[in-house]
Amino acid sequence: MNAHEIDYIIYGEEMQYVEIELDPQEGVVAESGSFMMMDDGIKMETIFGDGSTKNKGFLGSILGAGKRILTGESLFMTAFYNDLSGKRKVSFASPYPGKIVPIDLTAYRGKFICQKDAFLCAAKGVSVGIEFSKRLGRGLFGGEGFIMQKLEGDGLTFVHAGGTLARRELQAGETLRVDTGCIVGFTQDVDYDIEFVGGIKNTIFGGEGLFFAKLQGPGTVYIQSLPFSRLAGRVLASAPRGGGKDKGEGSILGGLGDLLDGDNRF
After folding, report:
1. Beta-carbon-side half-sphere exposure of residue 136 (alpha carbons within 13 Å)
2. Domain residue extents for the chain
3. Straight-line distance from the first to the last Cα atom of the chain, in angstroms, rounded to the nearest whole number
4. Peptide bond just before 218 cis, omega within 30 deg
5. What average pLDDT does range 218-245 have in this prediction?
6. Does a cis peptide bond (omega within 30 degrees of 0) precede residue 24?
7. Which of 149, 169, 210, 236 is the most buried if burial means most Cβ atoms within 10 Å?
């Protein structure tokens, strides 16, 4: 195996964290900001690139870093190594309520495609790259742009899903329609496209967006019930406006009350 073999335990129910046990000289790579705690004897190292290999030359590092910029992530990743003789543990936490999903890349022929902000951490040796969309509609309206993240290798990787997680096994030709933001990831054989909702009433009054993600098997699909964009939108919508005045979420007047009260800032 090219990737390090790591052991892990996932703790918690809604605000989970994953504890990874490292044997001597084993390592794990993680996104900046996901670190929670570590035992004494673990060495941290900032990596310029995609985290797949420690030394691959200046040009290779530049290309790996460029891929990460395209997915909206930082130029750098952080690697954690066990430099001592005994076993050591390092932990990484979820960024918001949801589930941490372990993905064994060997079970999916070495490749898994996920949302660009779903990746949490992985065994050292796993490559965190980009997956370009070859379809214009998917790129323009898919909610994730032309690019999703591509996890490649033969080790364990961990992705985060918001809310409750659903796992669906699609048979050949079986189709599943999903809100574009609710996709966590899918295996490489799944055909992913965008489909227009259709219908004037659905388009104008449906409130569910104009497009579905159309996923066709065979393959495995992971779906989240609470995308971060939806969570952030609800928080912003519930925030008091007009200097902290709050007329109550169930107010009959709603926005009209703002106008009558002299606050017309929407």
Report:
1. 0
2. 7-233
3. 56
4. yes
5. 77
6. no
7. 149
3-state secondary structure 62-74: HHHHHHHHHCCCC
Task: Give the DSSP per-residue string, 9-26.
Answer: EEE-SSB-EEEEEE-TT-
Query: Phi then psi for 256, rounded to 5 degrees?
Result: -60, -35
245 secondary structure, DSSP code: -
* Token couple for 11: 């703790």
What is the phi/psi pair of residue 192, to 5°? -115, 125
Alpha-carbon span 263 to 266, nearest angstrom: 8
Q: What is the pLDDT of residues 25-69, one digit of tens each?
A: 999 999 878 899 999 999 998 876 665 654 454 445 555 555 555
Run of H or E residues at 257: helix 255-260
C-alpha span between 263 and 252 (Å, rounded): 16
- pLDDT tens for 93-127 read 988 889 999 999 999 999 999 987 889 999 998 98
Mean pLDDT of the region 246-266: 48
Residues comprising the chain, all counted: 266
Place of tokens 């227009």: 196
